[in-house]
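so i finally got all the pieces together for this one. its two components total, 222 residues if u count the protein bits. some of the lines might not be protein, just check the labels. i wanna see the whole assembly predicted at once instead of chain by chain like last time, that was a mess tbh
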Amino acid sequence: SQQGEEDPQALSIQEGENATMNCSYKTSINNLQWYRQNSGRGLVHLILIRSNEREKHSGRLRVTLDTSKKSSSLLITASRAADTASYFCATDENTDKLIFGTGTRLQVFP
Amino acid sequence: SAVISQKPSRDICQRGTSLTIQCQVDSQVTMMFWYRQQPGQSLTLIATANQGSEATYESGFVIDKFPISRPNLTFSTLTVSNMSPEDSSIYLCSVQGHWGYTFGSGTRLTVV
């Protein structure tokens, strides 16, 4: 089952621009995570934000969480061509298992 | 974090046959999971592999189609049975530890 939706489904930007992806989920959570997947490759963990946190930063990444709206956003600043990938949010539904969102395909043009 | 060895990395199989995918972890972990990623789609959880007991399947997945073994805390297998072209996907195992989650590199299955 899919926990929630991500939008946009696809995003194309130029290098240097910022990319924002949104994730909505359905149930209460302990934490929300963001992953990156390059085409045909494995998942890379980007960042985890706990349900009692509202914002978190890691390098060029900024994640926000609004538990009242059951939504999160991932902002990538000053994007690079190497950021081209699919991005997924994942939530734990207050359990040990991770449920993934539908994903956003990001294309960054040089 | 743990290191996962998943085998095979890819396979092409005839319809009606079965394929067993192996997931070996370099340390003991309590929680192991199996996911399916259909072409162009996100990851869908198939089941939680429980050590010493039957796996817990998610809605839409059944044991007869996806039997899972978990003989110990470092190893699990997923079998895709009686395959059809619709089973062509990437299958990934995942483990949870104190560090968070680790994913295997996946098995790319093509059914012809």
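Chain A touches chain B through 18 residues (CB under 8 Å).
Chain A is about 0% helix and 55% strand.
anyway lmk what u think
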